[in-house]
Amino acid sequence: xxxxxxxxxxxxxxxxxxxxxxxxxxxxxxxxxxxxxxxxxxxxxxxxxxxxxxxxxxxxxxxxxxxxxxxxxxxxxxxxxxxxxxxxxxxxxxxxxxxxxxxxxxx
Length: 107
Known about the structure:
Layout: H1 2-5, H2 14-23, H3 32-41, H4 60-71, E1 74-75, E2 78-79
Antiparallel strand pairs: 1-2
Helix pairs in contact: 2-3
């Protein structure tokens, strides 16, 4: 469909999508609000993502250098030892984990 239209469907508005659905005879009628509701309910939202194309964080270079050093198995300019390893985890600040119910016991 992208080749036919020349643009990604993620750039289309709900009214444009509704008109295209009718034009392609997918439905005889459909409202923009119905299209909008379906898109809101759908798990796939390709238009909601962050891109690294435009970096607005002034400290990005410093932060990225630390991560890139870890990929190169170095920290503070020193190589990691033979037994050194890096654990990577993604932070999801929007996840509510609830209250902490027990203290951490490091064995």
